[in-house]
């Protein structure tokens, strides 16, 4: 059965994966496979004032909502377009003032509920068997029985927050069981909208994008043009081949990736990359020592690195001490060393230590190009950051070279007509 909303593809039963999406025609490298407007979305609070609440355009001369004074728009058309969703928060923000603080997930779920009440999901367009307002629970795989106690507690806290901040503004909220399922589905299947440097802009629900199954060697990549998700081929895709996206950061070795997928998506990946583990040796490279460390010592250092990465992201000194310790065994191209350097680079940027940030970026970018798949947004983002750092430090030739490397990836991943691509081209032209 062809998927009417996505020309050139069809839904099918993927062996061992349930619903999937496959090509019914050839897609060339860089070709747009399909675009999907967000069913519901929300701009993150941290980007208010910098991006339009409705279209996510980045501008300096936005004007604010006259009532809540917190939402910003390009023009009156964007404000009117967003009002059916914004009025829900506008009233609540005015009522609670500084005490209004629902999480981004709670805000997104509230909008999903409100949109379904106002505009029932278009069954004919999306070919999904919806028969209730509970949109997500019909086309997303549900794994409520696999949620651990910590996730259940977070779910219940979100439900409590939804009732606290929105119950007086949304009539007839769904019952507790329905909300439990809805939050679980949004947490598992929601998407993060990111800019060209992979900075977080907001969260959204993209029904068609959610049809794709995961692979650690994906043949498509998802980028964003405002609140529209664009899916482009990063490999040649032939008729009959399944279309795979990646759900996670692909930097890490097989065991780590599988842990992340199992924890967040409740399955064990059996893709080619996971079964062959072809990149694990390079990703887990250790130093050539006169007395090689035992396997247990390496595993202990991996455990240490994971704990440090998760628990200590605050101070540059902590990053440097950790790298010094891990550097006794790991090379600079080891993925855990790279992650720590990435954190250190972030701290340097925050502290406006541009030279320090540049130094870490230079160590990171080449191993990223090896460890990540071709046309990775992570690689493009690193070249972008490094290129802009070079230009800021008046290293023109190096800056232009790095921006061109970012552009080569972005023209495939984002498409040559994307405004992010135009911005980078303009930056390069300005250096001539």
UniProtKB/TrEMBL annotation:
One of its GO terms (molecular function) is histone H3K4 trimethyltransferase activity. SMART domains: SET. PROSITE patterns: SET (PS50280), ZF_MYND_2 (PS50865). Residues 7-248 form the SET domain. Keywords: Chromatin regulator, Cytoplasm, Metal-binding, Methyltransferase, Nucleus, S-adenosyl-L-methionine, Transcription, Transcription regulation, Transferase, Zinc, Zinc-finger. Its main location: cytoplasm. This is [histone H3]-lysine(4) N-trimethyltransferase. The keyword Protease does not apply. Its EC number is 2.1.1.354. Protein-lysine N-methyltransferase that methylates both histones and non-histone proteins, including p53/TP53 and RB1. Specifically trimethylates histone H3 'Lys-4' (H3K4me3) in vivo. The activity requires interaction with HSP90alpha. Shows even higher methyltransferase activity on p53/TP53. Monomethylates 'Lys-370' of p53/TP53, leading to decreased DNA-binding activity and subsequent transcriptional regulation activity of p53/TP53. Monomethylates RB1 at 'Lys-860'. It is found in: Cytoplasm, Cytosol; Nucleus. GO terms for cellular component: cytosol; nucleus. One of its GO terms (biological process) is methylation. The keyword Lipid biosynthesis does not apply. It catalyses: L-lysyl-[protein] + S-adenosyl-L-methionine = N(6)-methyl-L-lysyl-[protein] + S-adenosyl-L-homocysteine + H(+); L-lysyl(4)-[histone H3] + 3 S-adenosyl-L-methionine = N(6),N(6),N(6)-trimethyl-L-lysyl(4)-[histone H3] + 3 S-adenosyl-L-homocysteine + 3 H(+). It is an enzyme of class 2 (transferase). Residues 52-90 form the MYND-type domain.
């Amino acid at each position: 059965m062809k998927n009417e909303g996505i020309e050139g593809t069809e839904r099918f039963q993927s062996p061992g994966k349930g619903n999937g999406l496959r090509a019914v025609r050839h897609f060339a490298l860089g070709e747009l496979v399909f675009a999907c407007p967000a069913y519901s979305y929300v701009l993150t609070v941290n980007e208010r004032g910098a991006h339009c609440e409705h279209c996510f355009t980045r501008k300096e001369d936005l004007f604010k909502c006259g009532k809540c004074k917190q939402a910003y728009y390009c023009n009156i058309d964007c404000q009117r377009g967003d009002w059916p969703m914004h009025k829900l928060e506008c009233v609540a923000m005015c009522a609670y003032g500084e005490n209004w603080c629902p999480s981004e997930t709670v805000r997104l779920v509230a909008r999903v509920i409100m949109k379904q009440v106002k505009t029932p999901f278009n069954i004919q367009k999306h070919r999904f068997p919806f028969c209730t307002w509970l949109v997500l629970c019909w086309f997303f795989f549900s794994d409520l029985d696999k949620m651990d106690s910590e996730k259940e507690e977070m779910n219940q806290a979100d439900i409590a927050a939804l009732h606290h901040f929105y119950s007086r503004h949304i009539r007839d909220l769904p019952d507790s069981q329905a909300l439990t399922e809805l939050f679980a589905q949004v947490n598992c299947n929601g998407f993060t909208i990111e800019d060209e440097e992979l900075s977080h802009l907001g969260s959204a629900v993209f029904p068609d994008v959610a049809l794709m199954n995961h692979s650690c060697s994906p043949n498509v990549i998802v980028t964003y043009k405002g609140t529209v998700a664009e899916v482009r081929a990063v490999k040649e895709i032939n008729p009959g081949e399944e279309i795979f996206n990646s759900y996670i950061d692909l930097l890490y070795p097989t065991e780590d990736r599988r842990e992340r997928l199992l924890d967040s998506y409740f399955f064990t990946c059996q893709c080619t990359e996971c079964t062959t583990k072809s990149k694990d040796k390079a990703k887990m490279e250790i130093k050539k020592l006169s007395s090689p460390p035992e396997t247990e010592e390496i595993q202990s250092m991996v455990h240490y690195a994971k704990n440090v990465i998760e628990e200590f992201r605050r101070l540059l000194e902590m990053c440097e001490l950790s790298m010094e310790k891990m550097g006794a065994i790991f090379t600079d191209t080891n993925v855990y060393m790279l992650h720590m350097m990435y954190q250190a680079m972030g701290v340097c940027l925050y502290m406006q230590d541009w030279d320090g940030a540049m130094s870490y970026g230079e160590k990171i970018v080449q191993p990223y190009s090896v460890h990540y798949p071709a046309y990775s947004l992570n690689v493009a983002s690193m070249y972008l950051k490094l290129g802009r750092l070079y230009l800021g430090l008046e290293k023109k030739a190096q800056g232009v070279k790095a921006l061109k490397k970012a552009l080569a990836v972005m023209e495939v991943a984002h498409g040559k007509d994307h405004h992010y691509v135009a911005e980078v081209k303009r930056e390069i032209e300005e250096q001539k």
